[in-house]
Design brief:
alpha/beta; Spore Coat Polysaccharide Biosynthesis Protein SpsA, Chain A; 10-stranded mixed beta sheet; 7 helices; 12 strands
Length: 311
């Protein structure tokens, strides 16, 4: 971290619960997401190569900002986790919303739980359509460990869908649901599939083992059945079929891109310099490849943590 300074805390007390949001160009989603987190003692926002108004919007809710450039999901998540000072962390994405009922339940759990982490169920929306069944197999989730004690959650190092290692005892699953506006429409879902498979192809190339055509061909059927039958996607009609289809295509498309597409040329990113005072948002912009999570290369990037005194 380049700079660490004090930020606001609720009622002047040490933060008990930190809310963490990691974003990249999320100006459309960010206001409603951050507005739903006012119950937390501390709000930390990680800004990864944002070129839109995300930084300006985040400053309207918190001065606890971490800015930088990350190629991989794990390091940027841990940059945010390291910046949190709460005993507990609630980690959500910009396209997720905490309802008042969930907020109240989280506060109760934080005050009473002796466990290390808790699963929070998720209501996934495609546009305005609630789709509860069929999610999984790297293309969605019906619950995740969004609430955990600091130190209990460790992210893996892949560009997309990294593994998550949880330590300590699991607590009871919360009953209130997190709202997740996963895709605006079918076209956005297909674009997401394209981004995910491009990033996964990069991971496969670098691993030195992209797998075989036959195995990934068979996974179309196994993963489709896992989502459509095992996770009851059939209950959602055409939406469940589409989710299962995308989940089934994810491995084979990743394999084909890794095998047939030329490796992308990494665009150099200039690490951000420490913030010495008010900064023009344009100075935080840096060049990057169009593919999701392209960036500065291996290792932990230079980052900035800006925390102002209480408002």
């Amino acid at each position: 971290m380049a700079i660490v300074a004090l930020g606001r805390e609720r009622r002047g007390m040490t933060a008990r619960l930190s809310a963490l949001v990691v974003v990249r160009d999320e100006e459309d989603q960010l206001p409603e997401c951050l507005a739903s987190l006012g119950f937390a003692d501390e709000l930390v926002v990680v800004l990864d190569r944002c070129r839109d108004r995300s930084r300006e919007i985040a400053l309207g809710f918190s001065h606890c900002l971490v800015e930088g450039a990350w190629e991989r999901e794990g390091p940027r998540r841990h940059a945010g986790i390291d910046a949190c000072r709460g005993d507990w962390i609630l980690e959500i994405d910009a396209d997720e919303r905490v309802t008042p009922e969930l907020a109240a339940e989280i506060r109760r759990v934080v005050d009473t739980s002796s466990a290390a982490w808790h699963l929070i169920p998720v209501d996934n929306y495609i546009g305005t359509r609630l789709v509860r069944w069929g999610w999984g197999a790297s293309f969605g989730r019906s619950a995740h460990a969004a609430l955990f004690r600091k130190g209990a959650k460790c992210w893996g190092d892949r560009r997309v869908h990294p593994s998550v290692l949880l330590s300590g005892s699991q607590g009871v699953r919360l009953s209130s649901r997190l709202l997740h506006y996963v895709d605006r429409d079918i076209s956005e879902m297909l674009r997401r599939l394209d981004r995910y498979t491009t990033a996964r192809a990069q991971d496969l190339r670098e691993s030195g083992d992209i797998g075989s055509f036959g195995r990934n061909l068979r996974r179309i059927i196994s993963r489709f059945c896992k989502c459509y039958i095992g996770r009851r996607g059939y209950r959602e009609g055409p939406y469940g079929f589409l989710i299962a289809l995308c989940a089934g295509l994810y491995p084979i498309l990743s394999y084909l891109k890794a095998r047939l597409d030329p490796p992308p040329y990494a665009a150099g990113l200039t690490p951000h310099r420490p913030i010495a005072g008010p900064m023009d948002p344009s100075r935080s912009r840096s060049a990057g490849a169009d593919a999701e999570r392209s960036g500065v290369g291996e290792g932990r990037p230079a980052t900035e943590l800006r925390r102002s005194a209480s408002r």
